[in-house]
Amino acid sequence: MEILRKSRHEAQAAVLDDYPSTCASFSWEEARGWLDGLPDGGGLNIAHEAVDRHAAGEAGERIAIRWLGKSGTRREIRYRELAELSSRFANVLETLGMARGAGVFLLAGRIPELYLAVLGALKQGAVVTPLFSAFGPEPIATRMTLGEGRVLVTTTSLYRRKVAPIRDRLPSLEHVLVVRDDDFEALPEGTRELAPLLEAAASDYTIPATDPETPALLHFTSGTTGKPKGALHVHQAVVAHHATARFALDLRADDVFWCTADPGWVTGTSYGIIAPLSLGATLVIDEAEFDAERWYQILEREAVSVWYTAPTAVRMMMKGGSARARAGNYPALRFIASVGEPLNPQAVHWGMEAFGLPIHDNWWQTETGGIMIANFASMDIRPGAMGKPLPGIEAAVLRRLPDGGVAPVEHVDDEGELALRVGWPSMFRTYLHEEERYRRCFVGDWYLTGDLARRDHDGYFWFVGRADDMIKSAGHLIGPFEVESALMEHPAVAEVGVIGKPDPVIGEIVKAFVALKPGHEPDEALRRELLGFARKRLGPAVAPKEIDIQPSLPRTRSGKIMRRLLKARELGLPEGDISTLETPR
Ligand code: ATP
Ligand code: MG
């Protein structure tokens, strides 16, 4: 079994140097003690832990956010200033008469106002939902309806294009606060400008007592397997955000941390806002969309020390080879992690080639609110494995029993459903307005994740596929990830999505959709070569029988290949909910 050497992690929280004993002694109560809590036993509030507790004295002078605008502008926001700005926003909500628990939605690019509004709304006790700014009117309408949004923070141009056409379908929406980003002098009808409201509001705000179980964030899932679900999280989730960032990202107060995810996706909030701030680190925020050259420059110029990204971004950078990466100089960079999709072993190796650091895969979901399984800094990583459960997390590979119960799979390395024992702080509390669906996720005190995995005899978990994506071919159960990873090893391949295509004889055949790296011709010769290549690596039972070369593959906005869409298109079926689809057809 291949094992890569550890990352540079000079001062990894000593707790993890001995993983088994940390797991044995760790408790979530202990982690809660790493945070402050509101004064006078006032409970626990995410924004207090993220911002206010760092705002006083010298700590307040540290940079909380280093914002890089699209057009080259920069803005640095110190903790003290972020505390004031978010307090102003909380006061704005009070002035608008918002009761605790009101739905506050954000629809904006990664502009500073988005961050101060999220934090301010959390202070005030609102339930916050950041949406992807690239969403069209329909996905905005369905999500705002489900979450009963009463306040929307957006920009003038986004409002005009996307919200005005659906405004009359949003009866619960009372206030639209806009940031100007176009040249019209008049504000869109029915909106108010945010800047003067902030200006007029007081810069101090006393966070009301917040029970740790108070709803805080409503996050929609990526919609990879179907209609997105609204997962509701509570304030005590911050305990998990904070602890898991220490454990799985090796994050500390002196880090410059860059999480490339947009807050419209749970990663961009749990780790793109809350966790790094709760640790007192400096958060790099890039307003621009992905651009490989720009990203290398950010890593280099901003002296990023911990970088959290996703397989889709890594694959896009890999397309250009590793020479560009090696030409850069990243003395500060000491830890790279990835989440969202399986990280092909190829990508882990590319990290070594490009940065001299492996990429540490970790696994979690919108529902879990925080990282659950990871290749820790302090352990040898196994390319292709998701790692081991974090302290405080009990994970298991289960099989379903005929009586509706579950039991562990019989042998090490057997595939089964990945399950987590309930009880960690960032666990979702419901799928909003879908109670029944929520209940169906549990058997006894196990939460069943819908993903299939196996555990090796050293305790590493390996992703096999989503339960929905498994392929049954001639009596074999084939996980798409294995096939995709094998094809990724071919030098011409940039991306792969594998599906099962119904076949009258063998049930399903394995079909792969492939996108190529620049400079490769999508011709018949290459197609045949890929078929042969996969066959040699995987054997005839598992290798794809058909390969289709496409210019690009359909992806969710959080960067996941949408296999269900590849399948629907292949079979000429309705496309289903494609509200989160990124690549235009
Ligand atoms: P939906 O639930 O709407 O279909 P989704 O499951 O993609 O969408 P997210 O909550 O954003 O929504 O993604 C979580 C899922 O992403 C996991 O259940 C898993 O399938 C996949 N995933 C995340 N990290 C990893 C990883 N490191 N390796 C493999 N798969 C991963
Ligand atoms: Mg899911």
Automatic annotation (TrEMBL):
SUPFAM superfamilies: Acetyl-CoA synthetase-like
AMP-dependent synthetase/ligase domain boundaries: 54-432
Alphabetically ordered keywords of this record: Acetylation, ATP-binding, Ligase, Nucleotide-binding
Taxonomic placement: Bacteria, Pseudomonadati, Pseudomonadota, Gammaproteobacteria, Oceanospirillales
GO biological process, alphabetically ordered: acetyl-CoA biosynthetic process
Pfam family, one: AMP-binding_C
Organism the protein comes from: Halomonas aestuarii
Entry GO terms, CC: cytosol
Stored NCBIfam families: PRK04319.1 (NF003313)
Signal peptide stretch: none
Positions of the AMP-binding enzyme C-terminal domain: 482-560
Molecular-function GO terms, alphabetical: acetate-CoA ligase activity; ATP binding
Protein name: acetate--CoA ligase
Enzyme Commission no: 6.2.1.1
